[in-house]
Amino acid sequence: MLPAWEDSVQYTLRLYVTDQAGNLQTSTTHQFYCDQTGPEVVICAPYAARQSSLPTISGTTQDDTNGVDEVKLRILNMTCSKYWDGSAFNILDADKETAWFIARTTTTVPWDIWFNTFTWQNGRQYRIEAKVKDSAGNYGLSYATQTYIYDPDIPESYVVYPPAGSMIKGLPYITGTAHDTGSINPGTLTQTLIAIKRNSDGKWWDGATDFSSPAIDYRLSAALRKAGVILHNQCIFNQWHILLYHDLLSG
Description:
Largest sheet: 7 strands, mixed
Helix content: under 10%
Oligomer: single chain
Low-confidence stretches: 222-234, 236-240
Order of helices and strands: EEEEEEEEEEEEEEEEEEEE
Strand content: over 45%
């Protein structure tokens, strides 16, 4: 009867053999490590629900005993409900276990960091899954999963009032429109920034009392919800110069 092997413990086997003539084999030893705990895998990129750029899927692993043997990935195009087969999204959900493929690693300790390049389609939503196996054959208890929408489409904005090139005697307000582009899964605008320049001396409105700023000075026209802006549209009218900047959830 064998003992109950303990996890994360190293054992030594010692072996003796004798024959009918009484010859005794010199003692031999054999060491082995009992590893019953699966490794862990994490997806680092994509990291957000919407991203405008994702040249590489990447992540990390951890195993406290014998090290990681492999990391496999599976990519679902949620827009068409099919998995990647190596050349296109052709694998149905019933056959999804055939959709796994091995990721790449170049680190000194294999699989400490793993990655894979991929070409995404605009506006599609994807689910990326990763699973890991260690050198003892243990799999991680759960998959790492990340869902995101690839959204490289730039939003559009237009100044409605005052009209471009108009002559005015006063301007109580500035109005315009803005929307995200893309026919599939368009994003949501999170802020609009406006800057106003006096063309006669190149000074920018400081948002309070005067045209005193020599450098471009953006002011919020909606509540700030995220840092970072994307320049898209500008309109010159009479003596004023308006720039609209928009911030997207996709970053």
